[in-house]
Specification:
Rossmann fold; 7 helices; 2 strands; 45% helix; elongated
Length: 152
């Protein structure tokens, strides 16, 4: 779905773009997609000379669920001394917060196409465990304790 965009970014920035075709939910639950992205990134970084890429110029990027994955990969690799350091991460409308679907941004955009509030919660549940039977509880916020809400 992103091939044209990746090619455009590669041409426009004179960069090598590696796009990871990760496994998707609900058939493949968490952490399958994360592991695919992490493993592909590590493989790329360990074999960087094969791609003619400057190890000081590696950036991870993703949009939507891919933005979540890019952030998670960046955090995981931050402490690795055996790999080049990431120069940056680019997160385009990333799905980073799935704890509380009653925050102002979810309320303000709950009926804005393409990703309605209810649909966002549904996809998060599909990604985590493939079961959206407690969707109403998640939308109400009753799936987590008040202590956790106050902390985050």
């Amino acid at each position: 779905t992103h091939e044209k965009l990746c090619r455009s970014i590669a041409r426009g920035s004179e960069s090598v773009v590696v796009s990871v075709g990760y496994r998707l939910a609900p058939e493949h639950k968490y952490p399958a997609a994360y592991e695919d992205c992490l493993n592909a990134t590590i493989h790329f970084m360990k074999n960087i000379e094969d791609y003619g890429v400057d190890p000081a110029r590696i950036i991870v990027c993703g949009d939507s669920a891919g933005g979540n994955l890019a952030a998670a990969v960046s955090q995981t690799l931050a402490g690795r001394s055996d790999l080049p350091k990431l120069r940056a991460q680019i997160l385009i409308y990333p799905g980073l917060q799935a704890l509380d679907f009653n925050l102002p941004s979810y309320q303000q955009n709950q009926r804005v196409p393409l990703l309605f509030r209810e649909r966002a919660a549904f996809y998060v549940l599909q990604y985590l465990n493939g079961d959206a039977s407690n969707l109403e509880e998640v939308l109400e916020g009753s799936h987590i304790s008040i202590d956790i809400k106050l902390n985050y």
